[in-house]
Write the C-alpha cells for this entry.
Amino acid sequence: MGIFSSFLHLDRYTILARVVIILLILPLHEFAHGWVARKCGDDTAEASGRLTLNPVAHLDPFGSVLLLLTGFGWAKPVPINPARMNNPRRGIIWTSLAGPLSNLLAAFVGVIALQILFPFYAASDSMILTALYYFFSGFISVNICLAVFNLIPVPPLDGSKVLMMLLPYQKSMWIQQHQQILSIVLWVLILVGVLSIPISWISNWIIEFFLWTTNWIGTLVQMVM
C-alpha cells in the first residue's frame, strides 16, 4: 500500500496524534540529539539555537508531511561537530541514539497513560474517553515507528551514524562515500511502502513489550476503582 492510499484510511485520532508528534515530539527528538552532544562536549547545537523545544527551529517541511502521511518522518538534523566531543566515536553513537530513545521514552509514557485510562474507557461509553484512548494509541504507535525508522542503518538516518562508528574504517568509508545512492534507495522503499511491513512488525513487538511491562498499572487502577 502506497503512502497516499494509506493516509486516506487513517482515523482522525491518529492524524491528531501525528500532528502532536510533529509539533512536540520531533522537536524533542532533535533536542535530545543536541543535549547529549552538549554533554559529550559539543556545543554546536546550542550555539546554533537548536537546543530548544521550539518546533519552528527544528521542523523539516518534507519530513513533517511524510510523517503525517506514513507515521514516520524527520526534522532538520541538529548540527554536530564530533571534533569538539571528548570522545568522538562514543559521542556520535550516544548522540545518534538519543533521538530514537527520546521517542521510545515518549511512547512508554503514553503506554502508562493508556494503562491508567483503559479501565475507565472499558467501563464507559464516554466520547471523551474514547477520543483519549485512540489518541494515546496513535501517539504510542507513531513514536515507536519513528524510533524504529530512525534506527535503520541507512543515511541520513540515526542508525547509519551508529553503524559507521561500529564498523571497521574501510566499510564505514564505503557507506559515507555511497550515502547519496543509499539515501535514494531508502526514499524509494519508503514511497512504495516496502518498509511498512518490517517497521510495523518490530513496532508491534515493542508495543506488546511495553504493555506487558506496565500491565500491573491497569490492574492496580481496576482494583481501586
